[in-house]
Design goal:
Layout lengths: L5 E2 L3 E9 L3 E8 L4 E9 L8 H13 L9 E6 L4 E8 L6 H6 L5 H20 L2 E2 L8 E3 L5 E3 L6 E2 L29 H16 L8 H10 L10 H10 L11 H26 L5 H15 L3 H43 L3 H14 L4 H16 L10 H9 L3 H16 L14 E2 L13 H8 L6 H19 L2 H24 L3 H17 L3 H24 L3 H17 L3 H24 L3 H16 L6 H11 L3 E2 L1
Parallel strand pairs: 11-12
Antiparallel strand pairs: 1-2, 2-3, 3-4, 4-6, 5-6, 7-10, 8-9
Helix pairs in contact: 3-4, 3-7, 6-7, 7-8, 7-9, 8-18, 9-10, 10-11, 14-17, 15-16, 16-17, 17-18, 18-19, 19-20, 20-21, 21-22
């Protein structure tokens, strides 16, 4: 076969890539579609009748797992001609093989983890269809330009039947075989051992067993892993388990190996994200969000996993900050109270009150309450305290003699009464702050008609673009009053287009709030105009931008604003019938509102905390599986005294 040759009248060979014992691989172009493909040319000399079963095995194996992102896909198999038994037309992976990448140097821990996860992902799919690869090695792992790994070359794969679970024929590349593979009677777990070998080699730059084939086989069987200390510490336990000499001590499935690598990856993300969050305590929210997003993409975490981890890290940092702040506050309060006690013991009541005043001011954040406390202590400082801790009769009499006549008469009357009526003990209870009960939380969140909502939003014009929208809406109202249905429906459609266009303009200015606002209003207008497809499209966009805005508020710890944005996002997702997204937005809203409630509760702002708890319960009623925050809100709300 020659470069630039046209085969089968539709594939033009562009470049020779490589060859093996049974085939040659070319980069080619499919003339009709201009699509780049890889073509594996299978020589007839390598596939006599006795070996045709291996060829059919590869075809059968690949047909079951086509389309998986971590397996090189086969587009079609073309019958061969001349010296070739068949041409396999495959996906062309624009990148290097893992072998080529490893020749350039040691891989980073992140790249090693991501590639390992990709290999395990491909093996999970293959093993689920009872296909064992049997030749996992760096040359058979192809990488895209962004280093996504794809398992290639299933030419010696073993497909197990309903009753067979073990292979007995020694096949594969000896260096990368599992110990049991050289003796027969091995299964899917041999692929996992090979995967561990190439991950060790990728992250250290050396093979875990030195020597020639027989010496390597002995070291594998004995479990003599060399220079494990070269591995990053977080990978050592994983590799020692994966390369254990005893099969029962290794990972028992590709899923198990994938899950452990994923746990290590998440732990590394947590470690680095935590350091970033701690180091950027005084930086702007958007910069921190951008940095965390770069980390997420580097570790290839899903958006939901990264958000869950970030929320936990922010919560932990807030708890740590509040704990440190509280410890300092308690130390200062203790200092003032200690001084106050000493002053009381020496009857220096003025200084004692001063220290108590300082202690109380430290514990009060509310400015209004602080003013009342200041006034109270000022009055206390003007009062003389003539009596000692154990006053004598003479001291009491001297004080009574100084009383005005009216007060002396009251005192005598009280004393006479005390002689006649024995004093009854009083059941004194401490005064507890109380809050007003709201209505049933089931009615706190209500959805109105789009016509009503549009009427409400246009009743308060705040931005220039709303003036033009208001003009259109006023025309609509006139046509509605006149009963001219076709005209007002047309104007609602016009209003939807107007808001959709405005959203695009605000998007260029990166004003997420107005973008989400305009898409949502466009949805309302299109709904009334019975343009339901456009309404759903704008609802999805509105939901996306409200979610992005919520994340910004979360990074700024503006919990109430973040919660509102998640509720609006859920409202839009609900219209688009995206139920899983609705559930996720409601979940995040309960987290944000719980943070707001907890902060208010800690500051003794019980009415505010109570209202947030009610809101969390209302959201919980809309969820198929209420979050832990809902049950916690119910519990904490019950501890707040309520005035009915």
């Amino acid at each position: 076969m020659q470069i630039d040759q046209l085969i089968l009248g539709k594939y033009r060979l562009l470049e020779y890539l490589n060859s093996g014992g049974f085939s040659s691989v070319f980069r080619a172009r499919e003339e009709m579609t201009n699509r780049e493909v890889a073509i594996k040319a299978l020589a007839k000399t390598a596939y006599p009748s006795s070996r045709m079963k291996f060829l059919l095995t590869e075809f059968q194996a690949m047909s079951k797992i086509w389309g998986h992102p971590n397996i090189v896909s086969i587009h079609t198999v073309e019958p061969g001609e001349d010296d070739y038994v068949a041409w396999i037309v495959m996906e062309f992976v624009k990148g290097k093989s893992l072998h080529e990448l490893m020749q350039e140097g040691v891989l980073s821990l992140t790249d090693t983890l991501n590639i390992g996860l990709d290999i395990c992902g491909g093996l999970k799919a293959a093993h689920a269809h009872k296909i064992m690869h049997r030749d996992i090695k760096p040359q058979n792992i192809l990488l895209t330009t962004d280093k996504q790994a794809k398992v290639a070359d299933f030419s010696i794969a073993r497909i197990f039947g309903e009753t067979t679970e073990f292979a007995e024929t020694m096949a594969g590349t000896r260096r990368y075989m599992a110990p049991e593979q050289t003796y027969g009677s091995y299964d899917f777990r041999a692929d996992l051992y090979s995967t561990a070998l190439i991950l060790f080699q990728a992250v250290t730059g050396r093979f875990p067993f030195s020597g020639e084939n027989k010496e390597i086989d002995k070291k594998k069987a004995a479990g003599e892993i060399e220079e494990i200390e070269r591995c990053p510490e977080v990978l050592r336990n994983f590799l020692q388990k994966a390369l254990h000499r005893q099969l029962s001590e290794r990972h028992q499935s590709a899923t198990e190996m994938h899950n452990e690598l994923d746990r290590i990856r998440q732990d590394e993300y947590i470690k680095q994200a935590s350091e970033l969050i701690d180091a950027s305590a005084n930086s702007s929210g958007p910069k921190l969000a951008e940095a965390l997003e770069r980390y997420r993409k580097t570790f290839r975490l899903s958006l939901s996993d990264a958000e869950r981890i970030n929320q936990n890290l922010f919560f932990q940092r807030r708890q740590k900050e509040e704990g440190t702040k509280r410890e300092r506050l308690l130390a200062q309060v203790e200092k003032h109270y200690t001084l106050a006690v000493r002053y009381i013991e020496t009857r220096n009541y003025t200084n004692a009150l001063t220290e108590l005043h300082k202690a109380n001011r430290l514990c009060i954040d509310d400015q209004g309450v602080s003013k009342v406390v200041d006034s109270l202590f000022q009055k206390l400082n003007t009062i003389n305290v003539p009596l000692s801790e154990n006053p004598t009769v003479e001291e009491v009499v001297a004080l009574i003699q100084k009383l005005p006549d009216s007060e002396s008469m009251d005192l005598r009357t009280w004393l006479e009464h005390q002689k006649l009526v024995p004093e009854e003990p009083m059941d004194i209870k401490p005064i507890q702050p109380e809050v007003k009960a709201a209505g049933s939380y089931r009615h706190l969140i209500e959805e109105a008609s789009p016509e009503y909502l549009l009427d409400q939003v246009h009743s308060d014009v705040q931005y220039p673009h709303e003036e033009e929208a208001l003009h259109i809406f006023q025309q609509i109202q006139i046509f509605e009053q006149q009963g001219r249905t076709r005209q007002w429906l047309s104007l609602y459609n016009k209003l939807g287009k107007f808001y959709q266009k405005q959203a695009g303009g605000f998007l260029r200015k990166d004003d997420l709030e107005l973008v989400a606002n305009c898409y949502t209003r466009a949805r309302f207008a299109y709904t009334v105009a019975e343009k339901h497809r456009l309404a759903r499209r704008n609802a999805k966009k509105g939901a996306d931008y409200y979610t992005r805005l919520a994340r910004q508020f979360e990074l700024q710890r503006s919990w109430e604003e973040a919660g509102k944005c998640y509720i609006l996002a859920a409202f839009n997702h609900g219209y688009a019938n995206m139920l899983s997204e609705v559930e996720e937005c409601h979940r995040m809203a309960t987290v944000c509102y719980f943070n707001a409630a907890e902060s208010a509760h800690l500051n003794n702002e019980l009415q505010t905390a109570y209202d947030f708890y009610l809101l969390i319960l209302a959201i919980g009623e809309k969820m198929s599986v209420p979050t832990k925050m809902v049950s916690e809100a119910q519990k904490l709300m019950s501890e707040i005294p309520v005035v009915s």
